[in-house]
Each structure stands twice: as C-alpha cells, then as structure tokens.
Amino acid sequence: MTTEPRAVPPAQRTLPAMLQRQAGLFGSRALLKIARSEWTHRDAARVAAARAGALAAAGVVRGDRIAVMCGNRVEFLESFLGAGWLGASTVPVNTASMGPQIEYFLANSEAKLLVIEGAFLERLAAADLGRTALREIWVVGEIASGAWQAPAGVRVVAYPAHGEPVEPAPVQPGDALAILYTSGTTGPAKGVVCPHAQYFWWGVNSAEVLGVGADDVLCTTLPLFHINALNTFAQAALTGSQVVFETRFSASGFWPTMRASGATVVYLLGAMVPILLAQPEGAGERDHRVRIGLGPGVPAAAGAAFKARTGVSLLEGYGSTETNFAIATAPDSPRGGVMGWLRPGFQARVADEDDVALPAGEAGELLLRADEPHAFASGYFNMPEKTVEAWRNLWFHTGDRVVRDADGAFRFVDRIKDAIRRRGENISSFEVEQVVLSHPGVASCAVYPVRSELAEDEVMAALVAREGAAIDPAELARFCEGRLPYFAVPRYIDVLADLPRTENGKVQKFKLRERGVGPQTWDGRPAKA
User: Fold this and answer.
1) Structural domain of 65
2) 254: which of 49, 243, 288, 325 is 20 to 30 A away, CA to CA?
C-alpha cells in the first residue's frame, strides 16, 4: 500500500478506499477531535460502515441524496462518511439558511432524508416539504420547545444509533460524493456535483500546499457545510495527521483555542484576519505551535501585519467549489499580493469573451481545467444548461477576472459575474432581490456588492417604491431577516426615484456600483460579524 497520496491508483480515489487505506496505514494514530468525540484513523472506516448501516435501514440506497443541516459536530461527519460509504451523496445545508432556502435545497437535490439539529427544526415551518422528495428527518440534539410539526408522509425520529456495519458500495471515482450549493447570479443556487475523486484531490493538493505531515494538527473554525472545512478531513485522512474542528470563530478566543488544540496548521478567510488584527496585541499571539495557515482572500497588508504579530505566514490560493486547489502561493514565493502560481496537474487560461487566450498583463476571465480524471466537479445537479454554459469549450469558466503576470503569477481583479462574497459566503444577488421584491411596498430593486472596511463585499440594495408607498429601510431589513440568511440581509439600502437602465430596460448595475454608498444611504451595520 503506497504511503504517497499522489501515487494512489485512480480506481482507489474514492471515499471508502481512502478510509480503508488510512485505517491500514495509520491505525491507532489520532485522527479527529470534534466537541467531545475523538477518533483514530482506524475508527473512521468503522464509523462510516456503521452509519451506512443506519442509513440503509432507513431506506437510503446507492445513488440517493441525504441533506445535512447541523453545525460542526460529529453527526455531520458520521452522516457524510456513511453516505459516501453507501454510495449515496451528502447535501450540506448552510446553517444560516431559512425556510425558503431549505425548501429549495431539498427540492432541487431530491433528498429523501434530512439530518438536522433540533435548534433549526422550526425553520421548516416556512418550507413546503410537499414539494420535496423528503420522507424522513433525523433530529440531532435537543428539540426546541414548540418545535414545528412534520406534515403527513414525513417521519421524524431522533438521530439513530449506529446500525449494523455494511460493506462499502462499489463506488467509482466519478460517482457523486456531495452536492454543494453555490449561489447563482441570475438564478437560484446551483448544486455542484462533487465526485469522490475531486474530494480526494482536494485533500492531496491542499496538504501539498501546506506541507501537511503526520505530526501536524490541523485546526479549523470554519463550518463543515463548506468544502474548505470538509477538505481538512481529507488532508488528515491522507497524511496520517489529526484534525480538530471547533464550533465557531471567535476573535478573542482564537489564540487560546489554537493553543488548547495544539494546532500547527490553521484555516482563515479574508475578513477573519482584519478582525483578529483589531484585537489588542498580546503575548498569546506568539504562544502557540502554529507554523502556517491558509488564508485565501486576505489583503496583502493584513497578511504582512499578521505575520509580524503572530509569526504565522498565510498562504494565498484559488479554488472554487467546482474546481480544486489549482493556484497557490508557497512559503518561499518570490512575492506576495497575488493569488499564486499554477499547481501541477492543472491548466489555466486568461481569456477574452470568446475564450481566446490573452497575453500576460491583460485582464480576462480565468478558465481552468484538470489533467486528472474527475478532479473537478462533474456539473450542476438538475441544471444541464448551466453545466454546459460553465464548462463550455472544455474549460471551466470561473467568472473571475484576473491578470497573469510575466512571471506566471495570477492576480485577482474583480468578479465578472454578479456575485457577492461576504464573511466567506457566496451570496446570490438574484435570491436577495426576490425577497426584497416580495415586500409589498417595493416596485423594483437591484442588489449588488460594495466594498467594506474589511476588504470584502457588503450587500447593497437600491430600490424603487410602489406608487403611494413609503419605504422604511430599517423595516425592510427586518422583513429580510426572517427570509434570508443573516449574511445576505442588505447592510446598505438606497431608495431611488428610478434605477438606471439600458434602452431595453435592463438595470445597469455597474452604474449603481460606481455610485456606491452616499450620504443618503441607510446603513444597518450588521450585528453579526
């Protein structure tokens, strides 16, 4: 059995094979700490087989989808591994999702089982489960008082104990392991179909970039419903290291948490670093074992200040849910302020609107493709037209405008697509607009990103009131709070006489972005960071 992950034969680049490989190679070495649960590498395969048994007893079969909506707790990983072992796919649901979003994810994915924390159960009251294929719900933890009542035909039970272990399904590297929803721009969120081999390559590439070895302790406060945190498990499984999942990010508690976990590798997103730097300086920022961190989207100045204060270098990189860790910096990179250089196993092109390659120094859309089979997502679930559009001409179109410099480094310029990224979350302007337009006083609106003091996007809405109606921006924001995840609620609201439009009536959002935040703009600074 090879100890080098990159040398694993193609047929063994599946989750069951990965779990069996790590059990044989690393056995009793510590693998996981999450809340009060701890696993060895050998435990992972055992837990997957037993959870697969419970899923099979509930009627889940190979090719089915199960949705999971819970925080960073062991039940999430059990369900993910068990589904993969059985040949089913996991549909992670953002824990900030409200009823309409949950309904859409369940309906679009055709999930037949939902694993959900009791604290989130009442959100299903605003979801029409009759429009979904759901037939069973497993409730994790305590059920909130006055919890929602399930409709006829949907069985609700407490999260069951492990079942009788089952043999792994004969899954193939190209079979779907997960469906991860990423926000659309001109339509609803798209379910990215992630095959087993893509997950394998996420772990291989990320571990190589960070130099992860068997003695490392990987620690993340990021949520398991995103590929970033799910990927840390793959890194640990492939290298024999340990991963610690914390429940949430806390600026004041970050360094004490890292010390307590013994972390050597950490995972941060762009806005988290300025938030940490805003904390008072203290000796605890140096009293730790952290040697390196992954920090995509961290402003260059913030990264330099972080290194000066903490001694930790943050590596930059690029990889969307649809692709892989294709571009990255390294500890010895010749310069910063860039996304990085192309990694082995990938091809990149900076192209014009006809996919023609542009010369170095000229901005265009970043196109990517992989050399290895199934290293990228296989498409968007139940959206063949969107799949063809994104993967046209045998390249994945990222929707990001970049520049390739003469030395091969890639620099991010802006987004071509009308997408918003805030607090590490991708937000669909389309979905926010649909909620704003459902307000009885709104005639038309446009939602778009503006930059914040944390060097990321904030959500701004420009709207026109219906004739005879008066819009109170604060009331409109409260209206949105019950219908959108907290991070998607507009911070800035402008009430205008009209929206700028083309001759054929299309809203010119670029003019609104250029106009930006003005003295007349309502600012509902979010309470949650």
Assistant:
1) 13-27+37-193
2) 325
Residue 528 has pLDDT above 50, yes or no: no
Distance CA 402, CA 381 (A): 28
Spatial separation of the C-alpha atoms in residues 273 and 292, rounded to whole Å:
14
Residue 24 tokens read as 């044989």
**pLDDT at residue 456 in the model:** 75
* Number of domains within the chain: 3
Q: Regarding beta strands 419-422 and 425-428, do their DSSP bridges make them parallel or antiparallel, or are they unpaired? A: antiparallel
Predicted local confidence at residue 527, as pLDDT: 45
Distance, in Å, from the CA atom of 413 to the CA atom of 90, rounded to the nearest integer, reads 34
Residue 430 neighbours by CB distance under 10 Å: 17
Domain membership flag for residue 185 = yes
Segment 351-365 mean pLDDT? 95
Q: State the residue for tokens 């890194």.
A: 235
pTM above threshold 0.90 = no
pLDDT mean over 310-334: 95
Domain assignment present for residue 213? The answer is: yes
- Taking the C-alpha atoms of residue 40 and residue 211, their distance in angstroms, rounded to an integer, is 21
Residue 281 in tokens: 């300086």
Hey, what are 270's tokens?
């762009």
pLDDT recorded at residue 89 = 98
Q: Are residues 248 and 176 in the same domain?
A: no
Specify the higher pLDDT residue, 506 or 332: 332
Q: Residue 295 in 3-state DSSP?
A: coil
